[in-house]
Amino acid sequence: MTVEQGVRWVVKPLLFVACLLPLARLVAGAFGLAGVSLGANPVETILHTCGKWTLNFLMITLCVTPLRELTGIPALLRVRRMLGLFAFTHAALHFTTYLWLDQSFDLRAIVEDIAKRPYITIGFTALLMLIPLAITSTNRMMRRLGRRWQKLHRLVYVIAILGVWHYYWQVKADVREPLWYAAGLTLLLGYRAWRQWRRRVVSPRTVPAQPSQSLPG
Amino acid sequence: MRMHRPNHIKPSEITPESVYLNRRQILAAGIAAGATLALPASAAGPTGAKLKATRNAKFSVPDSPNSYEDITTYNNFYEFGSEKGDPAANAHTLRTRPWSVTVGGEAEVTGKFTLEDILKPHALEERIYRLRCVERWSMVIPWVGFPLGDLIKRFKPTSKAKYVAFTTLLDPKTMPGQRSGALDWPYVEGLRMDEAMHPLTLMVVGLYGHVLPNQNGAPLRLVVPWKYGFKGIKSIVQIRFTERQPPTAWNLAAPNEYGFYSNVNPNVDHPRWSQARERRIGGSLFNELQPTLMFNGYGDQVASLYRGMDLAKNY
Q1: Which residues of B touch A118 (CB under 8 A)?
Q2: Which chain B residues contact residue A39 at CB under 8 A?
């Protein structure tokens, strides 16, 4: 089996199933299957699980490029789209849970929340920014947009910052967990800043250009 | 600290028969708890000693109470962690016997009292109260306790006593949450004297007819049903009568979000979320939020305490 086949028929299917596990737990809990319970406040459990996994998938997606560069395994790039789409799926479910299970589609309350509550405003902004990234994630769109695709997908950096900020801002007092996310994100974005800086400062001859270096990730 | 007891308590009464009997029941209940471990979690019921209490219908709401499981597994008790499940998982380390409460400040009777001294003269009542958390969820809970006002009278507060201040146990060894700086420890709370003397204000020692589980604030906690839940300070070790308004834990943490009064008020939003509606715990996934009532529905009894006050300012 070639590396190409291995990624396509083994790595990606396994990863896909693994990425479904947080949702599988929620579904099991909602129907009381396999002894899983969503606790006393199931709406909150679903809301928070989807929100946190949006952040987790964003962080994992942002790990792909540094990992690829540090390990020299180009095939890693092949799973990035799937991870990014899982981030989008969880963000969409997080928002749907808020609209439906939490607010019961009470439009007046929802509009007021988005307009008046800064943490909801930035969370909503991040979700809106994820939509064009999801839409343009196909191979066809990548080809069609060319260099503009890379520029557009750098939005993921802003989205991740807004996402962690959204989490930090809604916590009541114990901000340790959002701060861990902020630290991780600082590391991931810091790596990219450092890489950019090195490329500019060090002569291109000593740092051989990598074929996909201009892709954001 | 000066240690003396109110004169009317004779040394022979320090361990009253009921408490002595309670100890036996606690032992028996402990054995029973061991036996029920094999049952699924949904069958979980009270494991503490049974308390003798009479239902006070006049001070009970008609809403049906939440399950024992919901009330004891979904808690805010930051001394044991900031997630709702943390207190149930961690509070077993708390030692509630022996327990004593120090009473001080502007009162004639002050000193350190054992829990047995504190509880002895009070007949226990069961009251079904609504509980509204500042986080926008609510429950209905059958507490067992006695009016705080009856306890306060025993200490004979002086005319200078305008407020009552409470303090939770400070013990990072048994309270893991106190090893981090989420709040300034120990947790402190306070009430204005007329709020404290109000017949609805309850000192709670039990839940569902049994001794209060640790995660709910054992062995002695405050319940003020018309205020947000965090005013109901848990595991109390100190009561102090003061002339000035005492500091309160959440107000110290975020003064623009949590005021001294913290009366349930659907018209005054938390800066980060609306307080107009609440999620009643225990409903189905598709239950809608229900409207939050002014003073949590206790307005007829307590609104007069705040006549003439701007409740948007005094939140």
Answers
A1: 272
A2: 73-74, 84-85
User: What is the ipTM score, two decimals?
Assistant: 0.83
| Owning domain of residue B67 | 11-256
pTM of the full predicted structure?
A: 0.85
pLDDT by residue (tens digit) across B22-58?
444 444 444 344 333 333 334 478 989 999 999 999 9
The answer to whether B179 contacts chain A (CB < 8 Å) is no
Residue B52 belongs to some domain of the structure: yes
A205 to chain B, minimum CA–CA distance in Å? 51
Q: Does residue A51 belong to any structural domain of this protein?
A: yes
Full domain range(s) for residue A74: 3-199
- Which of A41, A49, A166 best tests the B interface by mutation, with the highest count of B CBs <10 A? A41
CATH number of the domain within which B17 lies: 3.90.420.10
In a domain, B308, yes or no: no
Which of B274, B277, B279 is the closest to A43 by Cβ?
Answer: B279
Into how many domains does chain A fold? 1
User: Is residue B272 domain-resident?
Assistant: no
Residue B287 maps to a domain: no
- Tens digits of per-residue pLDDT, A168-187? 998 878 899 999 999 999 99
For every residue of B138-173, DSSP letters joined together read EEEEEEEEEEHHHHHHHT-B-TT--EEEEEE---TT
Our CA angle for B222, B227, B229, nearest 5°, is 60
Does residue B55 sit at the A interface (CB-CB below 8 Å)?
A: no
User: Residue B262 in contact with residue B315, Cβ under 8 Å?
Assistant: yes
Any idea which residue has 């209905």 for tokens? B140
Q: Do B279 and A119 touch (CB under 8 A)?
A: no
Distance between CA atoms of residues A187 and A189, nearest Å: 6
